[in-house]
Amino acid sequence: MPSIDIRRPHRLSPTEAHAVIDSVAARMREKFDVKTQWQNETLTFERSGIQGKIAVGADEIHVTAQLGMLFSPLKGMIEQEIRRKLDEHFAG
Fold this sequence. Notes:
Elements: E1 3-9, H1 14-32, E2 35-39, E3 42-47, E4 50-56, E5 60-67, H2 75-90
């Protein structure tokens, strides 16, 4: 099963970083029917064919995901979109 593992430094306060991840999660739920849930400082997300986590650290965002067979051919495109969103929201 292909996996994604991306780390991105940030300079936001924990509250600001949480707010950004919340807005990204809302978009994921709306656009891709993804179920999300906060567990402490980590947002878990899941839908058929993909499951992952977005961990909010003091100075780093860490995105991990496992892709099922359906999403395997799209791994490069999914990684590129995650990197673009992280750059957009956490470039510093």
